[in-house]
Amino acid sequence: MAMRLSIVFGALLFVTAMSLHNARVHAADPDIVTDFVVPAGMNASSLDGSFFTSTTLRQVKIVEGTAATVTPVNSKVFPALQGLGVSFAMLQYPPQTLNALHTHPRGSELLYIVQGVLDVGLIDSTNKLFTQTLHEGDLFVFPKGLVHFQINWEQNRTVKAVAAFSSSNPGLIRQHANLFKSGISDAVLQKSFGVTADTINTLKGL
Q1: Which of 26, 52, 71, 160 could be a cystine partner for 114, CB 3.0 to 4.6 Å?
Q2: Angle formed by the axes of helices 2-22 and 186-193, nearest 10°
């Protein structure tokens, strides 16, 4: 069992390294030539302060569970952000939960710890791992397109954080789903990572 887990973990690390080396995505919000973007179907003369206001985070509740939760405030839910190159999110990490390996292809992320202690990590394009333990009041930046994660090791306390992004729609690519839930054939995955069919099936089942 220990050997099997070791093989699976090693394969996941190799997958992450390969995806960083081969699949860095470079994109950014386009510059706009007006003060702000008026969504299609709306009349600029009828807009008031409510257009520039979002109440999305009023409805956020304290969560408990087995996974971290993210409540995004991007241009999809807050149209006034279109073209402005910024967005926001609230994150909650119940005890012993993970925000698994992922990237934001269109924006950097600046994470601020509101409550608790959170361990984070990122991997750069040379496959170097950077980790840090963050405390209340700390900030950590995840550069655009780099694979990263956050985990709450605390036993009884939910960690709360907020994040600002340098894009109105930074995007989200989860490494596991991107590689093992996207329909890539098992044969391609086996040859790419030099692992057996059993290992691929194990990774797909995670």
Answers
A1: 160
A2: 90
Taking all residues of the chain, what is their mean pLDDT, rounded to a whole number? Answer: 87
In terms of phi and psi (left: phi > 0; alpha: psi -120 to 50; beta: otherwise), the region of 65 is left
Nearest-angstrom CA–CA distance, 177 and 192: 16
* Residue 131 contacts residue 143 (beta carbons within 8 Å): no
CB atoms within 10 A of CB 68: 22
Full-model pTM: 0.81
142: exposed, middle or buried (Cβ count in 10 Å: 0-12, 13-18, 19+): buried
Give the whole-angstrom CA distance, residue 119 versus residue 98.
Answer: 10
Tell me the per-residue pLDDT of 12-23, one tens digit each, with 9 for 90 and over.
444 444 444 444
Which 3-state string (H, E, C) describes 108-122?
CEEEEEEECCEEEEE
Q: Give me the pLDDT at residue 18, please.
A: 45
CA 69 vs CA 65, 122, 185, 195: distances in Å = 9, 19, 30, 32
The DSSP result for 120-136, as a single string, is: EEEE-TT--EEEEEE-T
Helix, coil or strand: residue 163 = strand
Contact 71, 56 (CB under 8 A): yes
d(CA 111, CA 93): 13
